[in-house]
Specification:
Blueprint (H helix, E strand, L loop, with lengths): L1 H28 L10 H11 L6 E5 L6 E3 L4 E5 H5 L3 H19 L2 H30 L2 H38 L8 H39 L1
Parallel strand pairs: 1-3
Antiparallel strand pairs: 2-3
Helix pairs in contact: 1-7, 2-4, 4-6, 4-7, 5-6, 6-7
GO molecular function: peptidase activity
Pfam family, one: Zn_peptidase_2
GO biological process, one term: proteolysis
Length: 226
């Protein structure tokens, strides 16, 4: 019993720690103005234009850290603080989302693979636990296995997300440095913001892997009992 409590505490602490890191780092550097005075929207537009992506639009969106790139509409959406603000954090986040737009334009393999996995991953996220629970209650190994397969698809989606996010951050740093959108002494802050954000994806993938492994071991134990 104690081991299970420690395990579930571990699963809870990892994401909370990652979220705390990203919020703390973002809050710190969102209060530090970048030396060029460019808003997040201007940073995004400059990088998009430098890469010939004139058709990609930039829009403000409500919410904190709600920034994302919409590949269907070809729109970079920045939270209002980053869209209108001129902080180091805002510049880093804007450049990161533009990194996804560049990936999309170049047909980046991991991004295309992730897009292809979306329907299956959504099914896995929504129904895998119900299938596993049903398999446990009904002692139905096939139902349990189906749940594991769907969960595996959702976990694979999270794993594929890691290179997509790390690559977008790498592109972001290259772009904002090469274009002079941030100065040398600001690079460290921008990198900290991007690294902290990446931690949330790493934490999510780690937790998902641990849960998948737990259910696989449970399924193997079920078969041994039979």
């Amino acid at each position: 019993m104690g081991g299970f409590l420690i395990y579930f505490a571990f699963l809870l602490i990892i994401p909370l720690w990652a979220q705390s890191r990203v919020k703390g780092t973002y809050n710190k550097y969102s209060k530090v103005a970048n030396s060029t005075g460019r808003t997040g929207a201007e940073v995004a537009r400059e990088i998009l234009n430098q890469n010939g992506l004139y058709d990609v639009q930039i829009e403000p969106v409500r919410g904190k850290l709600s920034d994302h790139y919409d590949p269907r509409s070809k729109v970079v959406r920045l939270s209002e603080d980053n869209y209108y603000g001129s902080s180091i954090a805002g510049a880093a986040v804007a450049a990161h989302e533009v990194g996804h737009a560049i990936q999309d334009a170049e047909g980046y393999a991991f991004l295309r693979f992730r897009h292809a996995l979306v329907p299956v991953a959504n099914i896995g996220s929504n129904f895998s636990f119900l299938l596993i629970l049903g398999g446990m209650l009904l002692h139905a190994a096939n139902l349990f296995l189906l749940g594991i397969i769907f969960m595996g698809a959702a976990v694979l989606f999270q794993l594929i997300t890691l290179p997509v996010e790390f690559n977008a951050s790498s592109r972001a740093m290259d772009q904002i440095v090469a274009t002079g959108l941030i100065r040398n002494n600001e690079e460290r802050g921008a990198r900290k913001v991007l690294n902290a954000a990446a931690l949330t994806y790493v934490a999510g993938a780690l937790v998902a892997l641990l849960e998948l492994a737990r259910f696989i071991f449970m399924f193997m134990g079920m078969n041994d009992d039979d």
